[in-house]
Write a structure and sequence with these properties.
single chain, Rossmann fold, globular, 9 helices
Amino acid sequence: MTDTWEWDPSLYSGSAPYYARGRAAYPAELATAFATELGLDGSGRLLDVGCGPGSLTLPLAGAFEEAVGLDADGDMLAEAARLAAEAGIGNCRWVHRRAKELPAGLGSFRVVTFAQSFHWFDRPRVAAAVSGMLAPGGACAHVHASTHEIVHPAIPELVREYLGPVRRAGRGSLPDGLPGSEADVYRAAGFHGPRRFEVPGQEVTRTVDEVVAGVFSLSSSAPHLFGERRAGFEADLRRRLAPAETFTVRLPGVAVDLWFTRGC
């Protein structure tokens, strides 16, 4: 990520209705692994930073007294609230704020999670804030995962035809891709670790409608980026995916790095 890129509210504009349908759910084993690794027993609070539509918040909510999902996209939070109600999950609270506003008076937490979100933030600032929000013995969990895989080479080719060769992100672009080296950021913020646990990947079969939703769930191909050409892009995409009706892909495993503050 270059120094010239800046976050803006359009990053996932229009993606919320597509996210849950277009992305694979996290493996059911992930919540069990979290509970085992951290001794979760229904007490304490969870903070999921950059929660989107609650993709990780909702599976983990049952292991805590309260689960707080924080996101800068109000439409994502509305979708999260809808999905929580649909699933009968009543201990979630949704907070519409940017991560850089933490601690934002939210209190302390037993676990703070970043699931496919940390790269979008002012990482040193957010990591430092989170280090002061953990309860004694608490952990910050960085989730390495992909809930979306390209199932056909026509997809990136068509996105490039419509949006150009440089990865788009909101009103800007990311010519150098997303940042890595998060371990250095955590250590600079006073964390030690990590302690890693892993959950195997899963094979998923996606319908054409789900594949299209998956494309629109990505920041690099969010609906707003296509403007008046969105319908044309979708029609072209469906033509290139034809005549297949389903696509099967194996998603990589999920790895979780647990970071702890000194004295934990």
